Amino acid sequence: MRRRAGRPSQALLGQGQITRAALKLVARDGYKALTMSGLAKSLNVAPSALYNHVASKQDVLLLVEDALMGRVDVSAFARMPWAEAVRLWAHSYRDVFSAHLPLIPVIALLPVTNAPQTIKMYEAVTDGFLRAGWPQERIVDAIVALESFIFGSAYDANAPADIFATGELAEEAPHFSAAVSLRRNPAGHNDADAAFALGLDALVAGLAATLAG
Amino acid sequence: MRRRAGRPSQALLGQGQITRAALKLVARDGYKALTMSGLAKSLNVAPSALYNHVASKQDVLLLVEDALMGRVDVSAFARMPWAEAVRLWAHSYRDVFSAHLPLIPVIALLPVTNAPQTIKMYEAVTDGFLRAGWPQERIVDAIVALESFIFGSAYDANAPADIFATGELAEEAPHFSAAVSLRRNPAGHNDADAAFALGLDALVAGLAATLAG
DNA sequence: ACCTGAACACCGTTCAAGT
DNA sequence: ACCTGAACACCGTTCAAGT
User: What are B74-133's pLDDT values in tens digits?
Assistant: First the structure.
């Protein structure tokens, strides 16, 4: 799908330009700024012009999601033991989408068809599972389980520090309130990172035990 | 905060009425129908009238979320071993919010202050962890890890059956495509339920091992 | 083939005016 | 104290008209 020669290529709109403009817009001003008219303005074009290249805003989000999936680091699967590779991949995956929460419903609910980077990511992960001896028919369920934990953890990474502050209702939940106030974690780690590490270690260990058993 | 006597109580607006109307609206027509004007219409009132009782639409969502949290079954923590209780609670939690995906960012990102049912749920879960011998300072992280998995799984429960269909790009991801086509699970269980059970068992087993070790 | 400009059918929220 | 009605500043999307 190359541009025809003999035409000035700089000002022509295309899915690539739209994706790059959307990423830049989100990086600078966040998802509240990613509107069809805001996107059009950043491309010096009328909003309706976008609809010659995408069918809907959902389409734009899918393009952005697929571009970001290319930033998820799957390289550990080619050079490390399964458990360690899963941990590194999961951390990278969470870190990428913690900054892009509105895309999580897009990843979780939209078919991967026509999302080449996303498919490429899944292929690398599947390869790692196969090399570790996982039976083909269990691999997708295991990946989905890990992804579910990663998506939920991406939300949690954006939770405010006082999310569990019970306020005036503290006396009705004494044990919970006490547990919350004792939550303090080792220096250098915030609460979300500690919960993520705890859950990820448990999940990886539990899945490894399932495979062995 | 009772109504003053001597006035007709039937037509007066309040947070309770708003919550019930919102729940009914969502149950009948889904979250796309939960707009401030739609909600007002269902209460035979002008949209602006709602702002005498809630500060924003986010406020309405928080009210709905807290009401639904009362439907999450925590009773198993009072009568069953920890691992089994966690499994039953997690299933109930996922099932309640699988039908209310737009509330997941609300639960994950908004403080629990002034959400009494939510706090009550956390108290019951914390009690169960304490009785099982969990140290206070690890309980909140463990609950957060389980919740992250539950939220992600609630999304996955709404994924279309063909979410992993690679389409024209199948030949570029042969191992993944093969794993997807072999995913078929035992009769009576769909894919989401199988992935949820696999991950939940692994997480519970891994957490139990953490506690023991 | 791809753009503009106007229009449509919505959103959430505010606020003066009433009772 | 709590409601109405009008208004505001947006949304995503469509479509006739141009080139």
Answer: 999 999 999 999 999 999 999 999 999 999 999 999 999 999 999 999 999 999 999 999
> Which positions in chain A touch B131 (Cβ < 8 Å)?
none
Q: Are A57 and A105 in contact (CB under 8 A)?
A: no
Please state the domain extents for chain A: 15-55, 69-212
The Cα angle at residue B184 between residues B183 and B186, in degrees rounded to 5: 130
Buried b (16+ CB within 10 A) or exposed e, A65-92: bbbbbeebebebbeeeebeebbbebbbb
Alpha-carbon gap, residue B174 to B180, rounded angstroms: 10
Written out in words, the top-level CATH class of the domain with range B15-55 is mainly alpha
Q: Give, in words, the CATH class of B69-212.
A: mainly alpha
Q: Do domains A15-55 and A69-212 have the same CATH topology?
A: no
pLDDT in tens, A111-125: 999 999 999 999 999
Cα(A59)–Cα(A44) distance, integer angstroms: 20
Measured distance CA(A139)–CA(A77) in Å, rounded = 14
Q: Give yes or no for a contact between B88 and B80, defined as CB atoms under 8 angstroms apart.
A: yes
List bases in chain D with any atom under 7 Å of a protein Cβ. 2-7, 10-16
Find which nucleotide's C1' atom is closest to A32's CA: D11
